[in-house]
Design goal:
2 helices; four-stranded mixed β-sheet; about 25% strand; about 100 residues; rod-shaped
Length: about 100
C-alpha cells in the first residue's frame, strides 16, 4: 500500500488500476417509504346528534372494521387517517349515504 493511503489520504489515480487493496467506505442503504394501502370506505352524512361525516372501512392491514370522522364531505375524500390498529391508510370513498332530506 502506498504511504498516502496508510495516512488516510485518498488513493492516487494510479492506484485504481493496481492490484493493491483500496479501502472504501460503506454505502448507506436508502429506504423509500412505501405508500399506504387504499381503504375503500362508506361515507355517512351527519344524522341526529352526530354533526360530522362518518367513514367506515375495512383496514387492509388488520382486516378489522374501523371508523373515521370528517368535518365535511370534501374533507372525507382527502383523509389519511390512522386506524384503531395504528396503521396509516389512504381513504377512497366507494359509496356515499346522504340520508333523508328534510321535509
Amino acid at each position: 500500500m502506498s504511504p498516502d493511503v496508510e495516512n488516510g489520504a485518498p488513493p492516487a489515480k494510479d492506484a485504481r488500476h493496481s492490484n493493491e487493496p483500496v479501502t472504501t467506505t460503506s454505502t448507506s442503504v436508502v429506504r423509500r417509504r412505501r405508500r399506504p394501502p387504499n381503504a375503500f370506505a362508506s361515507l355517512f352524512a351527519p344524522d341526529g346528534r352526530r354533526q360530522l361525516w362518518m367513514l367506515t372501512y375495512i383496514c387492509p392491514h388488520c382486516k378489522a372494521g374501523h371508523r373515521a370522522l370528517a368535518r365535511s364531505e370534501e374533507n372525507a375524500h382527502v383523509l389519511r387517517p390512522r386506524g384503531a390498529c395504528g396503521r396509516l391508510v389512504v381513504i377512497r370513498v366507494a359509496r356515499t349515504y346522504r340520508g333523508r332530506e328534510a321535509a
